[in-house]
């Protein structure tokens, strides 16, 4: 790998890689077909939590998520993060289970944390360290941070192919505006990663996973934490706006009105269906591609939650030549 990098994709993952690599001294060009954060990143519910993590290749990354966001807050003042905690109830038929950073709370505590709840459940799982972010705002701050460290940003510039040299290694990318040279190319282009890798003889098993996000007009202070139930993931994003990750706008609106006092006037404003990049086994695909020297892949879900951690670790591998143990279970060659 070389520290002369072209990062393809300016969603939160690509922006994080670009920022951390530029901060570490790499020469970085960040290129995207649209505007930073305007793709699938913009449709994320953006719940940030490290609690409840147990097993799987992504478990160490998830466990570090909140600490990585707090680190990023210190590096990039003004990062739009809200540490509200999260409350979950009614999501399973059996008794609640807790993981690291979680506790079981009673109805009295639920009523204190969420005063507008009509009928507080007998129990809920409370994760006080959880939070949420403005995913586009975080991406924009990462891009600005990358630029402050010398990165070049090329928005509205679709990448059409990865270029190779005579020896078969990476030489940069072809774009609609002409070639961009680079000795290392990081594919962080979400579901488009597979199409860009395929002409190189590289199969990246990732596909689109639909996710619907609803925006509502709502009274100020109706929801105070991140609320997770069978009906929705719900949080307040501004004084008069809620967002929900759920399946049906009608059922979600009815559930909000029945769950919270003072919600009779909640009104649906918009729906957005995003195509989350979902690897075939659900775990991140991160690492160098041995068959194509200089090619590196970073495609994952949940990108917003894991973006700061992944960006820092990928930059360590690309710029410092480290082999990060936290990424050991995320390599492409597991397929």
| Mean pLDDT value | 95
Q: Name the CATH class of the largest domain.
A: Alpha Beta
CATH architecture of the largest domain: 3-Layer(bba) Sandwich
Instruction: Write down how many β-strands occur, each being a DSSP E stretch of 2 or more residues.
Output: 20
Query: What is the approximate shape?
Result: elongated
Largest sheet: 8 strands, mixed
CATH superfamily of the largest domain: FAD/NAD(P)-binding domain
What is the share of helical residues?
Answer: 10-25%
Terminal Cα separation, in Å?
A: 22 Å
The name CATH uses for the topology of the largest domain is FAD/NAD(P)-binding domain
Oligomer category: single chain
**Helix and strand run:** EHEEHHEEEHEEHEEEEEHEEEEHEEEH
Radius of gyration: 21 Å
């Amino acid at each position: 790998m070389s520290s002369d990098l072209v990062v393809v994709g300016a969603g939160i993952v690509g922006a994080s890689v670009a920022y951390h690599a530029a901060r570490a001294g790499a020469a970085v060009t960040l290129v995207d077909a649209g505007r930073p954060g305007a793709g699938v990143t913009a449709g994320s519910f953006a719940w940030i939590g490290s609690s409840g993590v147990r097993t799987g290749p992504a478990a160490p990354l998830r466990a570090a998520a909140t600490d990585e966001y707090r680190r990023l807050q210190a590096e990039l003042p003004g990062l739009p993060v809200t540490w509200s905690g999260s409350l979950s109830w009614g999501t399973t038929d059996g008794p609640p289970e807790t993981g690291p950073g979680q506790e079981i709370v009673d109805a009295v505590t639920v009523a204190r944390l969420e005063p507008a709840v009509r009928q507080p459940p007998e129990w809920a799982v409370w994760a006080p360290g959880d939070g949420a972010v403005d995913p586009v705002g975080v991406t924009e701050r990462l891009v600005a941070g990358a630029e402050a460290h010398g990165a070049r940003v090329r928005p509205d510039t679709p990448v059409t192919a990865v270029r190779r040299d005579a020896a078969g290694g990476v030489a940069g990318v072809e774009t609609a505006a002409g070639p961009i040279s680079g000795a290392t190319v990081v594919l962080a282009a979400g579901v488009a990663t597979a199409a860009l890798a395929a002409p190189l003889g590289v199969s990246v098993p990732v596909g689109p996973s639909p996710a619907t996000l609803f925006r509502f007009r709502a009274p100020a202070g109706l929801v105070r934490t991140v609320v997770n139930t069978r009906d929705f993931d719900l949080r307040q994003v501004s004084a008069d706006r809620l967002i929900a990750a759920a399946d049906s706008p009608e059922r979600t609106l009815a559930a909000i009105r029945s769950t919270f006092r003072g919600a009779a006037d909640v009104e649906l404003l918009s729906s957005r269906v995003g195509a989350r990049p979902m690897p075939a086994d659900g775990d991140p695909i991160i690492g160098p591609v041995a068959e194509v020297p200089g090619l590196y892949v970073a495609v994952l879900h949940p990108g917003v939650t894991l973006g700061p951690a992944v960006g820092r670790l990928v930059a360590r591998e690309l710029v410092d030549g480290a082999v990060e143990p936290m990424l050991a279970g995320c390599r492409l060659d597991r397929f």
